[in-house]
Amino acid sequence: MNGGGDGVRRLGRVVLRRRRLILVAAAFVVVVSAVFGGHVRQHLSAGGFADPASSSARAALRLESRFASGAPNLVVLVTAAGGAGASVDDPAVEAAGLDLAGRLAAEPGVRGVKSYWSLFHAPPLRSHDGRSALILGQVPGDEDAVRDATRGFAARYHVTGGPITAELGGAGETFRQIEDQAERDLRRAERLTLPVTLVLLVLVFGSAVAAGLPLVVGALAVVATFGVLRAVTAVTDVSIFALNLTTAMGLGLAVDYSLFIVSRFREELRHGYEPDRAVIRTLHTAGRTVTFSALTVAVSLAALLVFPLPFLRSFAYAGIGVVAAAAGGAVVVLPALLAVLGRRVDRLALFHHRLRDPEDGFWYRRARAVMRRPVAVVVAVTAILVVLGVPFLHLDAGLADDRVLPPAAAVRRVGDAIRAGFSSREAAALAVVSRDRFDAAAPGRTDQIDGFARALSALPGVARVDASTGFYLSGLNLLGPNDLSKRFVAPGRGTWLSVVPSVEPLSPAGEALVRAVRHTPAPFPVLVGGDSARLLDGKAALARRLPLALTLVAVATFVLLFLMVGSLLVPVKALLLNVLSLSATFGSLVFVFQEGHFAGVLHFTATGTISVFTPVLLFCIAFGLSMDYEVFLLSRIKEEVDLGRANDDAVAIGLERTGRIVTAAALLLALVFVAFATAEVTVVKVFGVGLAIAVLVDAFLIRATLVPACMRLAGRANWYAPRWLRRVHLRHGIWETEPLDIVDLTLPAPARFPARH
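Above: the chain sequence. Below: its structure as tokens.
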């Protein structure tokens, strides 16, 4: 059986014979990707957070198609100038406010403009102190259409001087400012990451030439990623946040994989092999391991495709492309570059790593120390991880709002003022839309709508209900229908009602209000939309598909690891340790970002929730990254086992061979993510911190401690598989009988491997 050896040999021969052609082709790909994907940001989406099949999404669609209406996504906060005695009821302030509302209504694409003054001085649109009032408007379309239509609005509706001051807020402006800030964060992260990464690589390799190679592959992967993202946007939506995270993954994974390739190549040179032979041997070992590792990351990211939300699916499309670009650069382009450089890879050396016996190494001694007391180590480290993971039991999932931006952002100032100074949440009203078409003015329908509106207005957490029959508060019709009521009906198309909440929309109280509205008996079938309904429906969509995603990741990872090592216990152990590692990561995120610890240090505002998408997205990304180091370590341990070493010796030598590189890779990858944790947008900051924690916990607590302890306890059982499964592995496993016997190169005869376990 060969299990992949022939493919590696063919790749090695191609790399050696076509090395310069490969480098020219790589340069061509970079140029094309830079031209094609250089402006990818303009094609990325600011939305994608709703399940298209959900009740809330269908309500929004019907509201737009039947009534040409929707929830207000533009809010202008108008404040009376002139000190504490000024009021929005002053004649000069009222005149200026109405003029500003008229200017907004005249903007192309803006509709449904209403204000405190046009609604007969409606109390919910007036602040508690009487100094501020609201103007509301709506731009139809998705987040991208709103973003494009409202560019320039912030400057036009930033008013100072005269009787009023004004600033623009609302969901539309929030998404636009998040997108602009995310781009600035990306540029700053790149400026921070590259020079520090180069310095660390020089310290790892001791050679400026060798240190530069991972950055070359990283640049190739990042630029290729832009091209991949641009290609994906031609067929489906990709979130703007994918640009930040896939750039981080592109650079991080490329450096990660390149570290192992370059390190193995230099190791083979130090063993006395000529450069061409060293390239082949490197591809047989580190190259196959990198390819296998990339498969595990891609499988984890592919699990995001089972979710119906475009935001999550976009990370699957982009992430798989990133992994392919990083792995392709590491196993094709980098070996070609090494073949060209040969021994010059050690040029500009600052120092040399001395080749020594494994028994003399730090990681060998550490592994032996851990394996001397495996039970104590397992208990102690597991206890630490469990304690770190406990806060995750109190996870409260929500949706992002303007508070993901820094307090100095204009839209954030508007949001803070509304939360602090107004009794209702006008821009977050629930839309209760009739599902069926009917004539709302038909006999009996008016009474039905009136009774339904009264019942809704009496619910706890409702500030007001607006309907075609009037305006309701606490079960009473306080104001009959007027010109503003006409928007709630369309001839022969039914009706809709606006339920304005008095509670925070993106909170448990907001979700409870949605449930109460949906359970209120209605005289006709209805759909309920709005921010709170979108949050509730998003949670339900994730909950329905999460078991399938977890099962796919677990089964696929188990199969891949079995094909690699031919064991039942090792893949199970890897899955359990990954879950333990990720629970500690999630618990840490809840402790920091939900509960607000270290908010001052990290410069964010704790809202008491974490985005509902964060745990799912982080799981799929961090699970794959964690498996990276599992694969690297297991591959070296398996090499030693196949050479006939005892279990404990193989584990200690495997850790020694990979410990320094895994540690360096983890630190470099964590550095990339920490750079993104400096983002001003909290959503990006959460991912940066979360992935950095996941990588460091996995490298230092799992791979360097729990893995050798658990493998010591299992002993020879690590490599057990029933006879029929051993036959499956012999036939289909990712291995070869003589992995280093390259027939077209004269190499020393390999040692004969013992029978596989």
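DSSP finds 23 helices and 13 strands in the chain.
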